[in-house]
Design goal:
This protein is mainly beta and about 100 residues long. It is built from 2 helices and 5 strands; from the N terminus they run ββαβαββ.
Amino acid sequence: MSTRFVENQRVRIADRDAPGHVRTPVYVRGKEGRIERVLPCFLNPEREAYGVNGGTDVRLYRVRIEQSDLWPDYDGQAGDVLELEIYEHWLEPADHSHPEGA
């Protein structure tokens, strides 16, 4: 299965209201980060939780977000980041979505 995003690409996590079993935390929705790593495809857990998956595989990505971008009052180290795994259908290209140096 092909990948929509590549390592180091800037992405935005979709900011949508999604009731039910959702694997994307509310506090990261609408935030931008970079693809840290492209991971394998897995069954879509949001559909699998309700037994309606039908074998749909979804690419998973590890996304790195600066802590200061998540929390405006963050007073930790300047380089602190959060890395979390987000499924492809929750990711959108950011305004400056090309990889560094591309």
